[in-house]
Amino acid sequence: MSRLLLQVNQGHRPVVGMVQLPALPGGANYRVGTVEAVIEAARSEAEILSRNGIDALLVQNLGDIPVHHKTSVEQVAWMTRVTSEIVAAASCPVGLNFLENDAHAMMAVASASGADFVRIKIYVGAMLTPFGIESAQAHVAIKARTALGADNVAILADVHDRTGTPIATGGFEEDVEFALRLGLADGLVLTGKSYEQTLDMVARARAQYPKAPLFVGGGVTSENFAEAMAEANGAFVSTAMKDSGSAVGRFVPQKVQDFMAAARRAP
């Protein structure tokens, strides 16, 4: 079983810190660089998070915005190398996400690197994103996981992620059902366009599936952690721990410590 989901099953509410990579070769913003430099930057972020109590890590290619719908061979190669290094160095579960929503690539990297989970932003239905229309990846993810023998890699599926607009959907509840029952996701990640909408989405999903692992995908702070976890099982966090007030910036060790202390105190 996924170590992240084992934490959930044991009653913990894991905080997943985001390790955001600079542009990779094949990405729109890549300039000449080395994989060693990317590894060094990623390990520095991962070490700050790990030393200050984070429960899990997610490696993501944030520097590749704007994105295409499919990853390049170079992106896959470098992500595999970087993720492998983070997995080897970290004592906590490590997952990954390609912003390109390329589930086949994510599962391939996870199986090769020893990653614990993948986060797939458009898993069922279709979404209009700033970079075009993206469609369901459930069939791709499950087929790849089976073919690669990667049953221990958990699939966390976003439903109606805030970065896009659902197309021709039967509604939020229907897509929650599709992701869990038909798409066989192991858990959901829910993020509305506002914090209030996020809480509403989590409450509605919990009413449908009382035992499903539900993660809040953004907007969680040390001040609202307890409220956010009233119905959720964990959270992905970046901005609240950085020096910039945005996902782009450096982690501040004291902010990580303060966040994790608040998470541990939360009822």
From TrEMBL:
Protein name in the entry: BtpA/SgcQ family protein
Family to which the UniProt record says this protein belongs: Belongs to the BtpA family.
Pfam families according to UniProt: BtpA (PF03437)
PANTHER family: SGC REGION PROTEIN SGCQ-RELATED (PTHR21381:SF3), ZGC:162297 (PTHR21381)
